[in-house]
TrEMBL record:
Record SUPFAM superfamilies: Thioesterase/thiol ester dehydrase-isomerase
Entry's EC annotation: 3.1.2.-
InterPro entries found in the cross-reference section: 4-hydroxybenzoyl-CoA_TE (IPR050563), HotDog_dom_sf (IPR029069), YbgC/YbaW (IPR006684)
GO molecular function: fatty acyl-CoA hydrolase activity
CDD domains assigned to the protein according to its UniProt record, in alphabetical order: 4HBT
A Pfam family this chain is assigned to: 4HBT_2
Enzymatic class: hydrolase
Organism taxonomic ancestry: Bacteria, Pseudomonadati, Pseudomonadota, Alphaproteobacteria, Acetobacterales
Domain of life: Bacteria
Keywords: Hydrolase
Protein name: YbgC/FadM family acyl-CoA thioesterase
Family: Belongs to the 4-hydroxybenzoyl-CoA thioesterase family.
Amino acid sequence: MSDDFLHPVRTYYEDTDAGGIVYHATYLRWAERARTEALRSIGLPHAEMASQAGAMLVVKRIEVEYAKPARLDDLVTVRTRVRHVGAALDLDQDVLLNDEILAALKVRLVCVGAAGLRPRPVPEPWRSALRARIASPENAA
């Protein structure tokens, strides 16, 4: 994930409305895929967190600001940046087309126990791996 994780996504017909414009909820699916692939890229996939640590990350809050639409057949990139790792995990995710931001997402994830869904700290080694990738060191906690 270095500081930024880049995940390419092709826009298909199923992602769009009748006018060929990407439907707003599609950006949330793309962001979810990029977060999953970001963890996988550092060797710490979601499935291992559940099986080894009995925990999972869930979205607590997400804000999306749409700037421009993606369209049918666009090849966009979802950029994921770790902003803060503490009791919650804060990420910035941008959907880009040729380095132009189409949508900016601010995401807050929390860790919960897989069985009871009660809040718990992000387990090691995920916590350390994510902290090592914080985009702005002043945001580390």
